[in-house]
Each structure stands twice: as C-alpha cells, then as structure tokens.
Amino acid sequence: MTDAPALDTLNPFVASMQPSATMAISARAKALRREGRDVIALSAGEPDFPTPAPIVEAAHQALRDQRFNYTPSPGIPELREAIAAKLVRENGLEVAAEQVVCSNGGKQSVAQAVLAVCQPGDEVLIPAPYWVSYPEMARLAGATPVALPAGPEADYKVTPADLEGAITDRTRLVIINSPSNPTGAVYSPEELAALAEVIGRHDRVLVLSDEIYEYVTFDAEFVSFGSLPGMGERTATVNGFSKAYAMTGWRLGYLAAPLWWARATAKIQSQYTSGPSSITQYASLAAFDMDHGVIDEMVSAFRERRDAVLARLESIPGVSCPTPNGAFYLFPDVSAVYGRSTPSGDVIEGSVALCQYLLEEHDLALVPGEAFGLDSGVRLSYATDMDSLMRACDRLEAGLGALQ
Q1: CATH fold group of domain 67-288
Q2: Residues 108-134: tens digit of each pLDDT
Q3: Helix axes 259-272, 106-117, angle to 10 degrees
C-alpha cells in the first residue's frame, strides 16, 4: 500500500515559492514599533505623498453616484479607453482598449501575464537585482526563473551579450523593469534597442515590461519597450497608478498586450478576482485630466532626497552606490563589511544578517539584497521625509561603524 499524501501537502508550485522579503521586514518593523521602539522603516516602496485631490474628489463623486456594482472584469470601458489613449499618446504603443486589462494592482497584472504564457519546462529570464516577486511568479506558473546578475560596476544593467548568452530553447519570457525596483536603474533608449535586437532573433521569446515607475525619472529618457521595432507584437506592458499618483492602497494596475495575451490574462482574472474596485476605477479616470504639476513636485522631492542620501552614503566607510536615475530606491553595495562581527560577537555573513542586525540593534529597517538576487547590497527606499532619511543614515553609519 502506498502512503497517502499528508493532509497539509501543498501544490508543489506553491511550495517552491518564497514569501515576500519586503513584506516580512515591514511586518517585523511594525511589530517593534508596537513595542514602543522608534524604528525607521525604509523597507516599503510606498510614496509618502497624499493621493492628488482631483482623484480623491472623483472617488467621492463615484460614491455619491452610487457606483457600487461589479464592473466588467477587465475594467470599465471608459478607463480602458483612457489607458489605451495614454499609451498611444505618451508611449508610442499601438494598442486599442480591448488590449487593456485593469487589475487589482500592477502585481496582479504581472502575475497573470506570466501565468498566461509560461508552463513547466519554460525559463523566465530576470535581470538581477530584481523585484522580489518576479521569480516567485515564474515558479507559480511551473516555470524556472533564471537570474542574469548585473552588479554595481554595470550600474545594475544587463548587456546584450548577457542576454544572448542566457537565452536557450527553453526561454519563454524576459522580464524588463526600467526604472528598476530595487536599484533605480534606467535603461537608455540605445540600451533597450540593443536588448530588443537580441530578443528579435528568437521567435519564441516574449517580453514583460514592468513600467510602474515610468514617471519617476531623473535626467533619463523613458522608453516603453513595446514601442521598439518588432517588439509590440511580443511585449506585455504593465503599469499602474500606485507609484506616480500615490495610490498604493487603491489597488489599480493595468496590462496592455497583444490581443491574444490580453484576453488570456482577462480570462484568468475573471476566475480569480473579477474586476478591480469600481470606486477606484472611476476615481482613476481623473488622473488623465488633472494637472501633472503635482507629479512633477513629487518627483522633484524624490530627486532631492536621492541626492541627500547618496551624499551621506558616500561618506560612510564600506558603502558604495551607483547613482540611480529613477524610482525611489538606492541599492548600495555593503559587501565590504561582510565577515565583520557585531558587538555581541555575531558574524555578518551577508545581507540578511546585516539587515537583521540593523533592525534589531539600531532600529533601522532595510531589505536584504539576497531577496533581490544580489546579496552584496541592501535596498533603501527614500520615499519618506528628509528628517527620517537623515536619521536613518545616522543609524546606518553607527551600525556599520560598530562592526569589528
């Protein structure tokens, strides 16, 4: 008689996944705060600005109009049309409203895009450092994530040679995230064109371009990957409202893709969650008509914070960091302190140990680079006020300085 599976046996694809490191660090920081500790958390990627007033007022109006019903699963027609028009006008993409699928955040859009086209035996190429969820989404689809490491010496960007060398007959999807979480790296138009040339030589390879930080750029030209020659027919573009419009908790992202791919993601969504919040969808329509000066002010503040924190990091022994041109993250290399010991005698063997030490002993929450596929660094979010950032730098300097 064969042994029956244990009651708690999981789907092997789910069992292979890892929990989100950013969520885990944030949860621990909140727990310490509840204990009365003055923890400075630079772990979550969430703008500290309020949602713009026109969007909030549009939500109020939707409530007054009792827009409480289920919406079509891919989103209300008005919103899909507005998104498609934006992508044509601003991004040079050739898309129609029926190719747009609105979801409960950009994360859901990415997951459904991966799940729709990947299967066991496929490989998903992911430049590292990468957003923590990309490889786990590949695993959930039964595919194998393959990291393409790019360190600080390369400004955290992969080259065409890196990409060509990683593509095999099992490669199904390449994920591109520019501006990047966790590094803030932005690929230039020339760099993206060179990557597109490589991808164009491989008939079966698709691209997922995560452009959620599109508006948060400094001294860099943003280009949508799907606008490059030959890439529109094989690229799913993901974007959303959470970062540019400070709407993280509103939960609204979207995908635009070739019709066959978009329809597949819509089919998945129809069985998993159905459409996003009706109130959020109607509120977000205001984003396309509002004055974008409020976004410019937010990006200007991010730039000021980036410059101030970079200057502090450069003054701390054992820390080095390329200058990012987008998003609101820094990914300093801290590997020079690995091998040193804490005052209590614990050896800092890598980014996980370093972040645990900084959180528990110095009330500073950062995210270990190991979670992003590059253990030599840590992720620091500067989406908070300047006073907190400077105090965080003080704690980082003190923490590293105490290592022996």
Answers
A1: Aspartate Aminotransferase; domain 2 (3.40.640)
A2: 999 999 999 999 999 999 999 999 999
A3: 110
**Is residue 226's pLDDT more than 90?**
yes
Distance, in Å, from the CA atom of 237 to the CA atom of 347, rounded to the nearest integer, reads 43
Question: What is the rounded average pLDDT of the residues 61-80?
Answer: 97
Q: Which CATH class is domain 12-50+293-401?
A: alpha beta
Check residue 4 and give its pLDDT. 67
Q: Would you call 387 exposed, middle or buried from its count of C-beta atoms within 10 A (0-12, 13-18, 19+)?
A: exposed
Output the pLDDT for position 2. Answer: 58
Question: In the chain, what are the domain boundaries?
Answer: 12-50+293-401, 67-288
Can you give the length of the chain in residues?
Answer: 404
